[in-house]
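Box 4.2: Ligand-aware structure prediction
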Amino acid sequence: MARFDSPLLTRTSQHWCSLVLKNFDTFLIDHADCERKAAVTALSLVRSYPEKSKLIEPMIALAREELAHYHDVHKILLKRGVVAFKSKPDDYTKTLRSHARDPRDQRLLDLLLLSGIIEARAHDRLETLAPHIKDKKLNSFYTHLANIEAGHFKIFFQAARHYNSDKVVDQRIKELVAIEDRVFRSLELLPRIH
Ligand SMILES: [Fe+2]
Ligand SMILES: [Fe+2]
């Protein structure tokens, strides 16, 4: 499986994997919702910052990709007979996004970097989980997905560098990654991506 230069300080534990494997439908419901939210996040950045034209191509491409993932996970859920699903509130993402500062341009920087960090965590989860999935089809789906998700955090970090100096971006990544680590460690371990 492809390795990537993760910005995260802590990796997902094997204990989390065991929890997911025992509650796979619950995991799938949350995973589908994470893919949907990833598509919505990319589109809302384009909607909120229409003047930042360098965001348009990468964010729309990303939204299309995440939407396709959402569709894929939905198909798996339906195949397994899971129909009435509703995901639970996502405290991880909500807490992280509360650290986005004002004013507007600073907020864009923070939202891009936080989105990148959230993507890196999703990748970390999938990459840890994939080799432990026994079902052949599901294993190859998650292995493939983990490889694709590996590049997503870079799309956001790169977008941030279009509008900020490397020094400013690198410093803020450091601060936000430390915040992510605190939030990640503080939350109850659940069979969900976030
Ligand atoms: Fe995705
Ligand atoms: Fe992604």
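In the box above, the bound molecule is fe (ii) ion. Helices lie at 14-22, 24-48, 56-79, 91-97, 104-129, 136-149, 152-163, 166-186.
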